[in-house]
Amino acid sequence: GDSVTQMEGPVTLSEEAFLTINCTYTATGYPSLFWYVQYPGEGLQLLLKATKADDKGSNKGFEATYRKETTSFHLEKGSVQVSDSAVYFCALTDSWGKLQFGAGTQVVVTP
Amino acid sequence: NAGVTQTPKFRILKIGQSMTLQCAQDMNHNYMYWYRQDPGMGLKLIYYSVGAGITDKGEVPNGYNVSRSTTEDFPLRLELAAPSQTSVYFCASSSVGNTEAFFGQGTRLTVV
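Structure tokens for the assembled complex are given below, as produced in the milestone run.
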């Protein structure tokens, strides 16, 4: 079945550092791809999405490009802040509408 | 806007007891989902629904049941609770499969 694999954490960075979180997927059709973020004690909220190949999703300085040839959707941010400390989840929906998540990557940004 | 509302927020169950986790959304969304999140782990899909009267199993359905009699409500039933069901449960909804899913605040369940 469809699945999402993302890099393990925690990822610890200093403020203003560059962040990359790798995400690859396996899918039989043409999934939509998402990044969700979870702040401590809260539910998940959408960070960005891309619904077809070569689409770039962006929000709050974060970006990810839907790469069909490498089945990837890596998340990047050029300069992280302490407030970006959270758990980041890569996800996909298949053609049946099933929304599945990767294991999550904890990001810790230190001042 | 209420969005997705889950009740209760916290619950302690004894082994063998049953309970229903409630989930309601007021956005007229067709798709609804139940996930569990174990400590330090990702979200595992338990059940999902693409509309009233239609439900399907996710990755970890054993020990759970769902129903979807209305668009708004998607309750999750635990029968014969076991310690392995100790987790945080999240309900989510979306209008269609490729759009943003909105999450509830979660239900923290402990089975002792």
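Chain A has a mean pLDDT of 93. Chain A touches chain B through 23 residues (CB under 8 Å). Further analysis is deferred to the final report.
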